[in-house]
Amino acid sequence: MLRHAATIGSAALIDSGNGIVTYLLIKAGHIVAVFVWTGGMLAMAALLAALRPVEGCFLLPEARLLEAARRWQRRAITPAMLAAWGLGLTLAGSGHWFAAGWLHAKFALVLGLSALHGLLAASLRRVTVKDVRKPSAALRLAPAGLLGAVAAIIALVVLKPF
Questions:
Q1: Which residues pair with 54 in a beta bridge?
Q2: Among candidates 19, 12, 14, which has minimal Cα distance to 99?
Q3: Kind and range of the H or E element at 89?
Q4: What's 12's DSSP letter?
Q5: Element (H, E) at 2
Q6: Using CB atoms within 10 A of its CB, is residue 152 exposed (0-12), middle (13-18) or buried (19+)?
Q7: Which reaction does it catalyse (predicted)?
Q8: CA dist., res. 103 & res. 162, Å (int)
């Protein structure tokens, strides 16, 4: 027996048995992964924007914070990005949304966020491992770009305008 999944916030038809529970678990996992990923990126961007080396080097507490941020980026933020992609593609497939215009726009924005993630991770690595003491000035715009992209993605997913 199939029932319309509009009752669970989807346009797809889902099996009325365990399929709905599975869909909801995947959706919840996707949302959690996106929160961890984007929240971690926002923290990385804020940290990189706030860096102020003293006489060309960082103070010990600042260096420890940078190293902890780099570990967190490798252990939590990057895996969350990969989970968000995997679970998101699973949701798109189960909802048969690959032809939807709103999803194409969302993919473009998520690709941009993935590129920004790479830039932030590389900047964090350069600041902690190499002798680069000041990240690119362009990264000061990263928090605003990140928040704008996330807001646009939320609007696309909720409104599905096209």
A1: 57
A2: 12
A3: helix 78-94
A4: S
A5: strand 2-4
A6: middle
A7: protoporphyrinogen IX + 3 A = protoporphyrin IX + 3 AH2
A8: 9
Q: Tens digits of per-residue pLDDT, 109-121?
A: 999 999 999 999 9
Mean pLDDT computed over every residue of the chain: 86
Q: Which residue has the tokens 């048969």?
A: 96
Q: Give mean pLDDT, residues 89-103.
A: 95
pTM: 0.83
Residue identified by tokens 């003293």 is 54
Residue whose pair of structure tokens reads 């790479």 in the numeric block? 118
Alpha carbons 85 and 101: distance in angstroms, whole number: 18
Q: CB-based contacts of 152: which residues, under 8 Å, 6+ apart?
A: 105, 109
Which phi-psi region, left, alpha or beta, contains residue 2 (left: φ > 0; alpha: ψ -120 to 50)?
beta
